[in-house]
Design a protein that fits this description.
The chain starts with 14 loop residues before the first helix and ends with a strand. It is α/β, with parallel strands linked by helices. It has helices spanning 15-20, 22-25, 71-77, 98-108, 124-129, 144-151, 169-179, 183-203, 233-240, 249-255, 285-293, 295-299, 301-304, 314-321, 327-343, and strands at residues 46-50, 53-57, 64-66, 84-86, 113-115, 134-136, 156-157, 211-216, 224-228, 244-245, 262-266, 277-281, 308-311, 348-350. Strand 3, helix 3 (71-77) and strand 4 (84-86) form a beta-alpha-beta unit. The strands form four sheets. A five-stranded parallel beta sheet has the order 5-4-3-6-7. It is elongated. The chain contains 15 helices and 14 strands. It is found in: Cell envelope. It holds the Pfam family Peripla_BP_2. Residues 1-32 form the signal peptide. Keywords: Signal, Transport.
Length: 352
């Protein structure tokens, strides 16, 4: 299962590349304590420490360019329509992820400019033309050289601890809240979203203590089933809804290499992995069908009981893989309904 820090290219991905991108998307949950540190707003501005040093934001920003995943959602939810965003994986034909497009259209009456894709790094010319007073790229692979060039355009906040690692969705929200001089609203958004998750959990007591595995579909000819670890956002959100991670999680953690957020389970060992439910995503519905038709996988408890949810739709996969205060409102109603159906033996496989 390859892991890449390559810059994402929206709607240019083949289905195989989309599956490979799973490793990039998982990074959302890789750090439980990776949030930025920031001084309170003062006459000298807000200072945010990050992987490339520190950034001072001298006054409340008004023209924000939000690069990569997640940041545009948080900026919009905090009360500012970004002047520009990058087109990302999971965006529709319009170039916007559906929940973001719906929100900014309703809230601001217009959508931001989509920054044209640049083959090598950020599109500096297009960003400069937008005259930003803040550039955010917390879920990105901005290098130190790219950071320096972006900082010449406007104060820039890149990733906090490492490339493609924004921390949790809560940390992302509070960090951007600090950068936007909107700490209180950021805290409110986190609380509101946590309460939304809790409300779904209370409405579905049947989720409590049901074990699950979150993973990927099989590649053709594959002999390992990819599974995500306990700090992955998909796993965390599913646990927050009342489910319990498989008892095999300790084994998963012991076999993971380096700082990866996933590992592989040999199909030979799959029957020994305890789970009432399997949730996954893949590059296409055909991959989902291929996975559940595999003889070994088909005999595994959650598949044998038709207790599985497989998202092959890019927007849905992106919404649950890189969650934000906007994408969770978009995906949770369907995700919760699909989980409930799966426990009743009504599986889901969607996508093209």
């Amino acid at each position: 299962m390859p892991h890449t820090h390559a810059r994402p290219r929206a709607r240019r991905l083949s289905s195989l590349a989309a599956v490979a991108l799973a490793a990039v998307l998982t990074v959302t949950g890789c750090s439980a304590g990776g949030g930025a540190t920031a001084a309170p707003a003062s006459s000298d501005g807000v200072v945010i420490e990050h992987a490339h040093g520190s950034t001072t934001i001298p006054e409340k920003p008004k023209r924000i360019v939000a690069l990569g995943w997640m940041s545009p959602d948080v900026v919009a939810a905090l009360g500012t329509n970004p002047v520009g965003i990058e087109e990302v994986w999971g965006a529709g034909e319009s170039g916007y992820q559906p929940w973001f497009e719906d929100f900014v259209t309703a809230e601001y009456g217009e959508t931001p400019e989509v920054i044209p894709y640049a083959e090598e790094g950020p599109n500096y010319e297009a960003i400069m033309a937008l005259k930003p007073d803040l550039i955010l790229g917390l879920y990105s692979g901005i290098t130190d050289v790219e950071y320096e060039r972006l900082s010449e355009i406007a104060p820039t906040v890149p990733y906090i601890t490492g490339p493609w690692n924004p921390g949790t969705w809560e940390e992302m929200t509070t960090t951007i809240g600090k950068a936007m001089w909107a700490d209180e609203r950021a805290t409110e958004l986190v609380t509101e979203t946590e309460e939304l998750i809790e409300s779904y959990a209370s409405e579905h007591p049947e989720f409590k203590d049901k074990s699950f595995v979150w993973g990927l579909t099989l590649n053709e000819g594959g002999t390992d089933l990819g599974v995500y670890l306990d700090y992955d956002p998909r796993v965390r959100i599913t646990e927050a809804l009342g489910f319990t991670s498989t008892s095999a999680m300790d084994t998963f953690l012991s076999t993971a290499e380096g700082d990866n957020w996933y590992t592989g389970v040999s199909l030979e060992q799959l029957p020994d992995v305890d789970a009432d439910l399997f949730a996954a995503w893949g590059g296409s519905a055909a991959e989902g069908e291929y996975t559940v038709a595999n003889k070994v996988v088909a005999a595994w408890n959650p598949i044998a009981k038709n207790s599985y949810v497989i998202y092959a739709d890019e927007a849905k996969a992106s919404a649950i893989s890189a969650p934000t205060v906007l994408s969770l409102k978009y995906i949770l109603p369907e995700y919760v309904e699909d989980l409930a159906g799966a426990l009743q033996g009504e599986p889901t496989i969607n996508g093209k």
